[in-house]
Amino acid sequence: MKVFAISDPHLSFDETKPMNIFGSVWDNHWDDITADWEKKVADEDIVLIAGDISWAMHLEDAKRDLETIGRLKGIKVLIRGNHDYWWSSYKKIKEILPENTYCLQNNALKFGKYVICGTRGWSVPELGVTPEENDLKLYEREKLRLEMSLKEAKKLQEEGDVLIGMMHFPPFNSRYLSSYYTDLFKEYGADAVVYGHLHGNASRTVLTYEKQGIKYYLTSCDKLGNELQQIF
After folding, report:
1. Does residue 128 surpass a pLDDT of 90?
2. CATH architecture for the domain at 3-230
3. What pTM, to 2 d.p., does this model score?
């Protein structure tokens, strides 16, 4: 069993939201992703999709995008991104998810020796910058949600298991300083964390960053050249 990750596909099979207005890397980007997926992924493998899955505004409108993902090989695990406005209650999403497709929302999942948990997250304050009151509120709320998910993961985890965290927002600021999120991942013994949200050349980023013994993977599809990143 292998574990792959990618994020931010921004699917829009029932919408008219072309992504190539953001550059040529988005030309037929889903075709490129699926071609790479078919080459790499076996039925027993896991693919983590770290948010910004569909442009749909309502759950019913996201069905075609979710079904398209569901037809691909492997076990798919989804987490909410800031553009996933269609993401409603956990119960309603579970009801329409295709076979072998799962979502994270204040819970954790286990497949083989891999335990997966996480939350959407929010922008981590920059050094010397006072965050807006609403941003601080969301940052702190997502801390609580991450800890809830990590506690659920610990209930599932057995000796020898691998703990993987998922977020949509980066778990640190642009200087990779510690945050509520990185401190929690360290406290609960995460082995790796995947995240997305960052796009384009304007984002000063590295694809893999190690902090406190944990490997963090940026998996935005345009940053990866529309190829899946193997995590384990």
Report:
1. no
2. 4-Layer Sandwich (3.60)
3. 0.94
